[in-house]
Amino acid sequence: MTTTSPPGRSDPDLPGLLPGFLLAERPDEPQHPAVVRRRSVRDWIVDVVSFLIAAGIGAATLAEEVGRGDGFTAWRATDLVIGIVVCFSLWFRRRWPIQLAIAATVTAAFVSTSGGAALVMLFTVAVHRRFPAAAAIAVANIFSAAVYYWIHPPSDSWTVSFVFATLVFVVAVVWGMFVRARRQLVVSLRERARQAESEAQLRVEQAQQRERQRIAREMHDVLAHRLSLLSVHANALAYRRDAPAEDVARVSNIIRESAHQALEDLREIIGVLRAPSAHPVAEDEPQPTLGDIAGLVDESRRAGMRVAVDDWRDAEAPLQPAVDRCAYRVVQEGLTNARKHAPGAAVSIALAGTPGDALTVNVRNGAPAEIVPADPIPGSGTGLVGLNERVGLAGGTLRSGPTADGGFALTADLPWPS
User: Fold this and answer.
1) Which residues make Cβ contacts (< 8 Å) with residue 179, sequence separation at least 6?
2) How far apart (Å, rounded) are the C-alpha atoms in residues 391 and 395?
3) What is the 3-state secondary structure (H, E, C) of 270-311?
4) Could you read off the pLDDT of 212-249 as tens digits, one per residue?
5) CA 416 to CA 245: how far, in whole Å?
6) Which backbone phi and psi does 152 adopt, to 5 degrees?
7) pLDDT (tens digit per residue) in 389-418
8) pLDDT tens-digit profile of 110-151?
9) Cα atoms found within 13 Å of the Cα of residue 255, Cβ hemisphere only
10) Which parts of the sequence belong to the Signal transduction histidine kinase subgroup 3 dimerisation and phosphoacceptor domain (predicted)?
11) Computed from CA positions of residues 51, 54, 60, 63, in that sequence, does the dihedral angle turn out positive or negative?
12) Where are the domains of the chain?
């Protein structure tokens, strides 16, 4: 089992003895002292192979020393015991790579059987620590080899043996740094893939949220208008029970037509909600524009509202589709709110503007001319909020508020490029 220490801190077993760069945490390990990672099958295989390599090198070195010396003496037995202990310490090299590498390097200067373990420790440091730490341990191993060959002169030339040992240490460091770089690359690619997946999911959620907001605005703009008309006509029938049969039939026909249209609008919105995400409904589907205001005003007049329209704009100049739809929604919201909150009040609609300046849409109603019923037409309270967002998306500004005569005014200034 292995644990790691927090980055930037020295190991508590050797406080103040080692420079900070030697104890830098490995990038591919958990960075919390409480994290314990269970040894995997791969770790077991690597540890067994490392132990066998270190033991094999140590045994070969000891055999050569015994063959060139005076047999298996007490010192050789001690050398063997120390070498076995150092080789077994390889099982803990992931937890204390620097400390065990230093201990193995110092031991290798005097004990022949610990040379293989010191080489494996050097490779481990190169894999799990930065280059300065690996280079420092490599230099220590080179110095240890020089001391060892001075105490135990080799059968060949001292220089040849020392150069060969130095090359082995350099190869171990280069190989370890290559493995480290490859691990870091894999970790980086995994992190990038995870981040890309997270960003893609975020973009999908944002697109879904925008679509929900668009559908909510359409549902409010369309259904609130239709259902408020239904409520007005139904109230007229309820309060005028003595109305002539012709008027009752006319109002009933209007209610039926309005209900049918509301159901059609609801069916279209539900169809949008049920559409597969891979085939979203196009934003440029047919939408009402300022040219449809006449029908909107006629519906309101048939519901008993007094509506006056003043159109001072240049009707020949075309409007951008988004601005055209937005202007229609402003008028629709103004009529709906007047019907809900100011029954019997006169409503005036003013359209003005020229290309290159701006299109101004103003919907104003006076104070309620009739008593507001105790159970008024319910509303979501977000109509003006959604309308303000719609006008902002079209590049305009929206102003709304009560007037001095107790009424309410709704004004939108929309861009009208030449």
Assistant:
1) 126, 127
2) 6
3) HHHHHCCCCCCCCCCCCCCCHHHHHHHHHHHHHCCCEEEEEE
4) 676 666 666 666 666 776 766 666 666 666 667 776 77
5) 49
6) -120, 85
7) 888 888 899 999 999 988 999 999 999 887
8) 888 888 888 888 888 888 888 888 889 889 888 888 888 888
9) 15
10) 211-277
11) negative
12) 2-155, 210-274+285-415
Is 210-274+285-415 a CATH 2.70.98.10 domain?
no
Residue 39, both tokens: 């040894």
Q: What's the one-letter identity of residue 168?
A: V
Give yes or no for a contact between 414 and 361, defined as CB atoms under 8 angstroms apart: yes
Q: Which of 367, 353, 256 has the alpha carbon at shortest distance from 312?
A: 353
Rounded mean pLDDT, 141-169: 83
Tokens describing residue 209: 């949220």
Q: What span, in angstroms and rounded, lies between the C-alpha atoms of 226 and 254? A: 11
- 19-31 pLDDT, tens per residue? 333 333 344 444 4
Q: What is the pTM of this model?
A: 0.44
Q: Which two tokens stand for residue 55?
A: 């033991």
Per-residue model confidence as pLDDT tens digits over 187-198: 889 999 988 888
Residue 409 has what pLDDT?
A: 93
Report the chain's mean pLDDT, rounded to a whole number.
Answer: 76
- Tens of pLDDT, residues 331-382: 988 888 888 888 888 999 999 988 888 899 999 998 887 665 555 555 545 6
The two three-digit tokens of residue 208, written as one number: 């879904």
How far out from the chain centre does Cα 380 lie? 32
